[in-house]
Amino acid sequence: MGQRTPLFDLHLALGAKLVDFGGWDMPLHYGSQVEEHHQVRRDCGIFDVSHMNVIDISGSQAKAWLQHLLANDVGRLQSTGRALYSAMLNTDGGIIDDMIVYLTDSGYRLVVNAATGATDLAWMQAHLAGLDVQLHERPELAMLAIQGPHARQKIAELVTSARAALIQTLKPFEGQSEGDWFIARTGYTGEDGLEIILPAEQAPSFFNDMVGAGIPPIGLGARDTLRLEAGMNLYGQDIDRHVSPLVANMAWTIAWEPADRDFIGRAALEDERAAGIGSKLVGLVLEERGVLRARQVVRIAEVGEGEITSGSFSPTLSKSIALARVPMATADRAEVEIRGKWYPVRVVQPTFVRHGKALI
Amino acid sequence: MSNIPAELRFAESHEWARLESDGTITVGISDHAQEALGDVVFVELPEIGKVFAAADAAGVVESVKAASDIYSPVGGEVIAVNEALGDAPESLNDNPYEAWIFKVKPSNTAELDKLLDAAGYKAAIGE
Q1: Residue B76 belongs to domain spanning
Q2: pTM recorded for the entire structure
Q3: Distance CA B18, CA B39 (A)
Q4: CA distance B113 to chain A (A)
Q5: pLDDT per residue over A32-60, tens digit each?
Q6: Which pLDDT score is estimated for B1?
Q7: Which residues is A342 bridged to in the sheet?
Q8: What number is the ipTM of this complex?
Q9: What architecture does CATH give domain A8-51+139-225?
Q10: At the top level of CATH, which class does the domain A54-137 belong to?
Q11: Any A CB within 8 A of B5 CB
């Protein structure tokens, strides 16, 4: 039996089909994964993401420590509530995890992946020696993502007036506390929406209120096709400790300036850049019928070979799409091997859908 | 509880088989199978004229989640395939016992008796 979130019994009552995800028993879908996907693109839905790890950082040296620990620069966060996306690298420049960092009144709040939580903490603690920095895990908190074009408006109608006011004024990629809730305008679907971190004991009744107001629950299946359409990486699939952000479409998350900021992995990334970056993460679109899947081989005429890292059926586009790591010289055409046969694919920028609209 | 029509025969690999009045056998996947697969988005049909032995892989059903082989429940020659699944693969979810996948001219109709009946299939899937 895996770990359970505070909403486990509600998922069962709502007919969830369960799946193991990073040691957690999580809802895969509640009937139809494709319908849940469309629900989020058209209206909104709720994801239980309480399996993700929240770590609060405080102490007088918290900023300097995170500036050493992360490839992006928390020095860019100018006011409470601002957030950034960053990789945490090993000395080889490989990605230990990817995360969102919020600047809070007492320091920083990190939201890291479920399966990597223990590794992350061990790495962080190993780099704490002698510093005035405190790490505070928050397993007593639950996390709900409400995503979709109508998410903010519908949630504002269900919460206190102070929280509704905050929801209406939050900027994209901003998260603020209101009482014992932390409300952020972030997500993993390519739609507008919220991520709300709240005490676990309040999560079931809030979840029930939302379901009662007609906002349906959405499983991890649709979460995966939504993030794939949005071109967002999944840790353990598109990125891992052997992959550098330079070949993961994450170059924008590396803060090279100031040049004297010595973050872990910087030297390796500089070497990689100087030697010439060999590959890139691109999007693939299959024009014929079929489904692209992770680990399928990609062949690019006169260039070489690559590999699909994530592939599925895109409900929004009604065709199969994938993320693939291919040689840098790859242009706009390639082929993918599916069950011994080669299929032509288009190579595109890896953002397929954003705010309900097809971009390819 | 899934729907298991009494007049059909079932393979342990979750295909159903129906003996037609002209002696051909129609093949599809069970309600239990479509439920386990989730939303079906693509069906790779066998080629007409191809000859399979019982339990040979004859096609592929792809759901959003994964690809699964379809095995021919009896041996024989493929005489028809359901081209309508090309535009409507989801009909395998909606009506698994109407959305047939292919028809075979069996090489030995007695192979049908080796398949599970409805009660046997019900037991096999633990219902």
Answers
A1: 9-95
A2: 0.95
A3: 24
A4: 32
A5: 999 999 999 999 999 999 999 999 999 99
A6: 76
A7: A337
A8: 0.88
A9: 2-Layer Sandwich (3.30)
A10: alpha beta
A11: no
